[in-house]
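Figure 6 in text form: structure in, sequence out.
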């Protein structure tokens, strides 16, 4: 046994993030022989893999999206239920990003490597809360790893809708974000009547089946929106874009990405990713000896930690 951190434990190749010591990929970008998938968003969960390890909810969402092409063999694991892939011991830890999302704790030769996938520390009634475990290496997304990026309070953002007395067209990603919005609107803008695009309804049904009903909502009807009754119509991005000339509605797009907002005045900044302070919290909780970054710029973290913690930029 050794406790030496292996610099090549994870490498990036054209198929994605690869662990040669267990011969598997984490959230591969192309179909592979063996995939460990952290959550069901399409940029992390591609179809057509031969063998997949994931949570039950992640499999349900992938099956809904991909149908027969979802993949050949699925091995479902609950949180804290360890299993082995090759020579690596793997345990799923809740990531708090969306229903079924998991951090992937990998143990090999006495060293613990924690891959976060996408994660969120803010409370969210529509998914399992984040959990923390200690690890020697923290492999963190760094989408918003910049001291100048601090996410606003999602409750304060949702309460903006209370000031809008006309119908609202609210664009949001169908999986994860829409369900969180329905829950938040029900709690903090309860006078609003929530209408949902038909493509989002089957996703909501999976949430309910998994024990996470999202709250009061109904399927969209064209006649309904002709009335001004403080409707909030939640639609996926492609529909939102097609309604660019929609009349008698206030347009919002709910996202943590500034470039997706309608304009500077009509913003709804609700992110399901960690910001700078959240990443620092993760480091404090995980207590890593090294930090490896993905999906963004790790230079700010490298500068911040200096000689205290080694930071390696994988992407």
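Output sequence:
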């Amino acid at each position: 046994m050794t406790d030496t951190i292996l610099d090549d434990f994870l490498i990036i190749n054209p198929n994605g993030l690869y662990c040669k010591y267990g011969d598997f990929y984490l959230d591969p970008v192309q179909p592979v022989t063996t995939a460990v998938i952290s959550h069901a968003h399409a940029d992390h969960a591609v179809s057509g893999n031969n063998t997949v390890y994931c949570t039950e909810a992640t499999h349900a969402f992938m099956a809904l999206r991909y149908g027969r092409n979802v993949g050949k063999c699925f091995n479902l694991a609950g949180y804290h239920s360890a299993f082995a892939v090759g020579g690596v011991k793997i345990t799923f830890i809740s990531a708090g990003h969306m229903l079924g999302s998991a951090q992937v704790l990998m143990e090999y030769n006495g060293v613990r490597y924690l891959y976060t996938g996408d994660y969120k520390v803010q409370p969210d009634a529509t998914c399992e809360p984040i959990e923390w475990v200690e690890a020697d290496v923290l492999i963190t997304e760094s989408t918003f790893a910049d001291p100048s990026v601090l996410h606003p309070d999602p409750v304060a953002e949702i309460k903006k809708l209370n000031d809008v007395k006309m119908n609202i067209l609210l664009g949001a990603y169908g999986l994860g974000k829409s369900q969180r919005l329905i829950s938040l609107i029900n709690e903090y803008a309860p006078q609003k009547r929530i209408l949902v695009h038909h493509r989002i309804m089957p996703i909501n049904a999976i949430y309910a089946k998994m024990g996470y009903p999202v709250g009061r909502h109904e399927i969209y009807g064209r006649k309904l929106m002709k009335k001004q009754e403080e409707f909030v119509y939640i639609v996926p991005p492609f529909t939102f874009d097609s309604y660019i000339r929609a009349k008698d509605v206030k347009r919002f797009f709910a996202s943590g990405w500034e470039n997706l907002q309608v304009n500077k005045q009509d913003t709804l900044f609700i992110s399901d990713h960690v910001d700078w302070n959240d990443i620092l919290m993760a480091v404090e909780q995980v207590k890593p000896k090294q930090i490896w970054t993905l999906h963004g710029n790790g230079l700010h973290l490298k500068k911040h930690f200096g000689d205290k913690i080694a930071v390696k930029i994988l992407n």
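Caption detail: The chain has two domains: 11-147+273-313, 154-269.
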